[in-house]
Design brief:
Blueprint (H helix, E strand, L loop, with lengths): L6 H11 L8 E3 L7 H4 L2 E5 L9 H11 L2 H4 L3 E4 L3 H13 L3 E5 L5 H9 L3 E4 L4 H15 L2 E2 L6 H17 L5 E5 L4 H13 L4 E7 L4 H8 L22 H10 L2 E5 L1 H15 L5 H11 L11 E5 L23 E3 L1
Parallel strand pairs: 2-10, 3-4, 3-6, 4-5, 5-11, 7-8, 7-10, 8-9
Antiparallel strand pairs: 1-2
Length: 334
């Protein structure tokens, strides 16, 4: 059985990854022109400025550095919606070991190109992360490679939890943390750390309406598998979470709200136009919960939204997205 990390493991992860990741800025949102009343008590944790462009670098490098060198020698493999793969590719590059990333067909071309820049081999397999993950597990077993799960690995969860350590170190008077939810690794780590440091803090998860994986699982009282995924926020589009993440979320997360893709796109535009912050749809999900009214803070409530990943979804030039093409020499299709 895999056990959840505690605050001691998260603090150990913070020491382990020091020098490999950035302590990202905690930005006061106000003043803004549009919806200034929401920005008044809002802080933004800018993981868009993290190595590889998202929070995923924290968990990935945490897991890589926690692995015995003998386990890594033959290479690392994982499945990803894009951002975790970039984090693992970075870890493989840092440790000088070969890395293979399995991706669904929906992943943007620019992320494939960036994976290649970190020296990773890319394999396209399946329509969503769950399909790619099955292929990654089979490949890891057949080749004797070290497999790093995108969200259900304790060392990955501990790495993501270091975000909460940084936030509460700078803003101990916070009332609420808004966190995007895909498989649940980010919110699991943040909730464990935040609740340990400040028991009364509120943790609110944000999922796409087209991929309400943990929302529906909590309603059912068990992890459920969605029949289909219908969201452009690829990194949040998973059919099923894992028992470990479900158990953590059920015991630590106060609420999960759902947002539309159109609302996330508006949230990404707000971040770009008001802050100059370039976020992808999943990166804008937490802010979107506020802007759309899906989460309504009380008067005087101090809220922090984690801006989880960089991208161009809020930019006017986004119509050109996907125009870049990676060299096909390092890409395999299955």
């Amino acid at each position: 059985m895999t056990f959840a990390p505690g605050i001691d493991e998260i603090c150990a992860a913070a020491e382990r990854i020091r020098g490999f990741v950035r302590r990202t800025p905690l930005l006061t949102a106000a003043p803004v022109q549009k919806q200034p009343e929401l920005a008044r008590g809002l802080l933004l944790k800018l993981e868009t400025l993290q190595v590889t462009g998202s929070f995923k670098a924290r968990g990935a490098i945490s897991a890589v550095l926690a692995s015995p060198p003998k386990r890594l020698r033959r290479g690392i493999v994982t499945a990803s919606g894009g951002n975790h793969g970039l984090g693992v590719a970075y870890g493989g590059w840092a440790m000088k070991v070969p890395t293979t990333i399995f991706l669904p067909r929906s992943v943007a071309g620019d992320k494939i190109a960036r994976l290649g820049a970190w020296g990773a081999r890319v394999v396209i397999s399946g329509e969503v992360w769950d399909d790619s993950n099955r292929s990654a597990l089979q490949h890891a077993e057949a080749e004797g490679l070290a497999y790093i799960h995108s969200f259900a690995d304790p060392d990955v969860i501990a790495g993501q939890g270091t975000i909460a350590l940084e936030i509460l170190d700078e803003a101990p008077d916070l009332d609420t943390l808004l966190v995007a939810v895909g498989g649940g690794g980010l919110i699991s780590g943040i909730a464990i750390a935040a609740k340990a440091l400040k028991g009364g803090i509120r943790i609110v998860g944000v999922e796409p309406m087209g991929a309400p994986t943990l929302h529906d699982s909590l309603a059912a009282g068990r992890p459920v598998e969605l029949a289909s995924i219908d969201t452009a926020a690829v990194t949040l589009g998973l059919r099923r979470s894992e028992t470990l993440n479900f158990a953590i979320v059920r015991s630590t997360v106060d609420r999960i709200v759902l947002v539309r893709d159109t609302e996330m796109r508006a949230g990404a535009r707000w971040l770009w136009r008001e802050m100059g912050v370039a976020a992808e749809l999943s990166g804008a999900a937490a802010v979107t919960a506020l802007l759309s009214g899906r989460y309504r803070p009380a008067a005087g409530e101090r809220v922090c939204a984690i801006v989880a990943g960089a991208g161009t979804d809020g930019m006017e030039v986004n119509s050109q997205r996907g125009s870049s093409r990676a060299s096909r020499s390092s890409i395999t299709e299955r």
